[in-house]
Amino acid sequence: MRKKKLILIGLIFLCLELFSQPNWTVNPNDFQNSMTAVVALNMDYTESVDGNDKIAAFINGECRGVAQPVFIQEVNRWLAFLVIYSNNTVGTVEFQLYKSSLAKTYTVEKTIQFAINAQIGLSSKPYIVSSPTLSSEAKFLTYQLAGQVSSEIVDLNINVLMPYGTDLSHLKATFTSSHLALVKVNDVLQQSGITENNFNQNVDYQLYAADETTTSTYSVTVLYANAIPEDIFLSNNKIFENALLNDTIGSFTAQDPNTEDVHIFQFVSGEGDTDNASFLIEDNLLILNTKLDFETKSTYSIRVLVDDNNGGVFEKSFTVEILDSPEIFEATNVFSPNNDGFNEFWEIENPYQFRNCKFYIFNNIGEIVYETLGYNNDWNGTKNGKELPIGTYFYVIKCSEFATCTYSGFISLVR
């Protein structure tokens, strides 16, 4: 009994489909002229893959052609080969579609003009007959890459800024496009938020309108956004009180992810800027611009800004320490440059404090045998590379106005 019911239901649906099918017929012998069209049927935004679906062409409300889709293996697509007949040389051709699985007939808004022996569409590029009408646009509406700083669509160019140092070789794009448009890169279908591409070079997207009448190519260029400096360092922040005006205290460097940036350093107002006027910055060097006195002021505070010339800035405060200069000059008065590795040079205490002083060494008849600006504990009892005789020598040290004194004494050279 159940089997009979199922058969009965099937017969009822078959009858309903047969009776709901449109009675579209045409007799080619009644017409003198024709044109042909290779057509893909699209109903409710879905392309037909059913050989029972139909397309009909009408001129002045009279059926002038009927066809059903067949599978074309070469293009992997279901296409209808439609012949449209007429006894006139011109006329507006209208279409209707029939979807067998829904027993539904669709009216198509789009029309074409009849032309004798004309051919519309190819197997490789069929003419799309659709209801509702498919979009003829092939555009990106929005586009962005995962983790981007910004992106903009300008005509057919898309410019994206990524954080500096981002790996560009495996990025996913999230996008919206014209309704039902196909999006491809190198003939590979793109899925928003899923498909990866290598953006180390420009990536070209091909967009195909849903009705396949329009194509567009968008070129995506990815650049690194500016990396903002992250820190400032000062190579030295200590200076002796007997330093001269325009003495270099230290050099500034910036910590910046973008090592190619050229940095500009300058004083800036803000917390810690109390003593900015006591110093100068030349290129990246911190220069003394005031007379120092340890007993009066032992620390100075400055605030510095670094600019990477690309809109990135960073500020930081520093403390400059003033070192007390000794009131006396201390030096060895005997040395023995005999290559035994001991006591080979005349040495003084704290040579850095006297780097701006002139050093003179005389023999016992008043001739200068050695002179230098600043001293690095490197005189070994020679003049112009030749050993001097043993004996007593005399030194005179003339310091800057800040030291307010001159030092002198004797040296015994023995071997």
Structure description:
- The protein is mainly β.
- The chain has one helix at residues 2-20, and strands at 33-43, 46-47, 54-59, 62-67, 70-72, 77-86, 92-99, 104-107, 112-113, 119-120, 127-131, 140-145, 150-154, 157-162, 171-177, 182-185, 188-189, 196-197, 203-208, 215-224, 231-234, 238-240, 248-255, 264-267, 279-282, 285-288, 299-307, 313-323, 334-335, 358-362, 368-373, 382-383, 386-387, 391-398, 406-413.
- A hairpin with a 2-residue loop joins strand 13 (150-154) and strand 14 (157-162).
- The radius of gyration is 46 Å and the shape is rod-shaped.
What are the defining features of this structure?
415 residues; mainly beta; Immunoglobulin-like; 4 domains; 6-stranded mixed sheet
Low-confidence stretches: 4-19
What is the CATH architecture descriptor of the largest domain?
Sandwich
CATH topology assignment of the largest domain: Immunoglobulin-like
Mean pLDDT, to the nearest integer, reads: 92
**In one word, what is the shape?**
rod-shaped
Mind telling me the C-alpha Rg? 46 Å
CATH class of the largest domain: Mainly Beta
Give the tally of structural domains: 4
Strand composition percent: over 45%
Structural class: mainly beta
Helicity, as a percent range: under 10%
Q: Got a strand count?
A: 35
Q: Give the terminus-to-terminus CA distance.
A: 132 Å
Largest sheet: 6 strands, mixed
Individual helix count? 1
